[in-house]
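thought: fold this chain, then report.
action: predict
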Amino acid sequence: MCASARTVFRPISSDVVGIDGILELVEECFATGVIGGVQIKSGESFVDDTGTRFTFKSDRDHFGYWARCSIPVIGVVFSPDHGKSVWFDLTGLSTDARIANGPYSITLQYSDRTAFTPASLTSQIYPVIRQYAHQRRSLRQVQTLIQAKSQKASLSVPTIEVSNEKEEAWHELIETVFGIRSTDEEVADAGYRLSWHFPAVSEKLQQTLKDSFSQIDDFLLVRVLRVIHDLIEDNAAPAAELIADLLRYVPEISARIEELLKEHKIASAHAEGAIQIIELLDQQNRDDLRSLVQE
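observation:
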């Protein structure tokens, strides 16, 4: 979800109470330094049978912890069976009255306003995090200071590093993705950058990329599928999902990948990644293709 919304998400690997990861807001493809914590709960014990009522279950100590946090915290409850998530404003919910008296389980109905999606992340959760962000310089203020001293910021998002020639850089990235001599590593890097910057570039540049993917041949399509598979294997799922998102501009993409699998044009080692892409694009399980590949 965060990758689709071009938001930086950093999971916390150690056992830290009350926070499973960090969101960093992004403006105009730049990391802002405005961060929020995320507490994640996953499983059907948090959701009713219809997938419409989501319950965030916690305790007094956790609500007290979120009230003390110097960063805002949201909660996310995910239902694997229904493929849905709902978000909770844990900072706003951590009131004195709740800490003292409860309730410590909060239930929300699944709706456009409560669903955790790329759209709600930028339109609803971003403002909540900004609301609780105290005393900070804006991105533009910091950029002005940096430019005044001719220093280059080191930001953790991919950039098109051609300051006054974005259009030229955009075409160079497209040529890399569709270039016969490009390595898989180069295709992965260029595809990641194209997908990341896609929402921020002009409609003209967007259309150029769409046209390129609409005309992709089987050889290059297989290479892109291989690149996505390797990224998944390298635990770079967010980058893989961003590149996979570009395949939506290939006409009848799911049918084309399925045909490539049936004709054994995709190496067996990469078949699982190709099937996962179909499942991601169509939002349905395709174990039938797995059985076909195993035959």
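thought: worth noting. The beta strands are 8-11, 21-27, 30-42, 53-57, 73-79, 84-89, 105-109.
final: tokens above.
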